[in-house]
Amino acid sequence: SSFTDYQAESATISQGVVASNHAGFTGSGFVDYDNVAGSSVEFAVSAAAAGTQSLTFRFANGTTADRPMTITVNGSTVAAGRSFPGTGAWTTWQEITVNAQLRAGGNTVRATAATANGGPNLDRLRVTGPGDTEKPTP
Ligand code: GCU
């Protein structure tokens, strides 16, 4: 089994800031998206081979309103307005998974806020390779 973690605070952030004021994140912090549509985080993801992989986003949304985001891979939309629902508290982190085709070598995976509320707080992206049956854990 294999997976690779990419921390949001190390990714390319557009209209957001690195923060660490809500416990439970992995790495050194998380990205607090600006409360505006179009704010985004882009991860540089390397794949050993082309194929379908699982993109698991770890996030917190301490509001009761969904914070949908559009997920693109290499500029193509793989999930439009994917739900990032309320998690109950900013310190409660959950995961959602989108499956997508990656190419061998370098890929970009971007999560862009679809509404004026902006994105949730984003902790990391876990990329799980084909054939991996291990359940992602925090
Ligand atoms: C609060 C919270 C932030 C969050 C923000 C938001 O300010 O402390 O972590 O990002 O709400 O609504 O996006």
From TrEMBL:
Residues 4-128 form the CBM6 domain. It comes from the Bacteria. This is Glucose/arabinose dehydrogenase, beta-propeller fold. The lineage of its organism: Bacteria, Bacillati, Actinomycetota, Actinomycetes, Streptosporangiales. It comes from Nonomuraea pusilla.
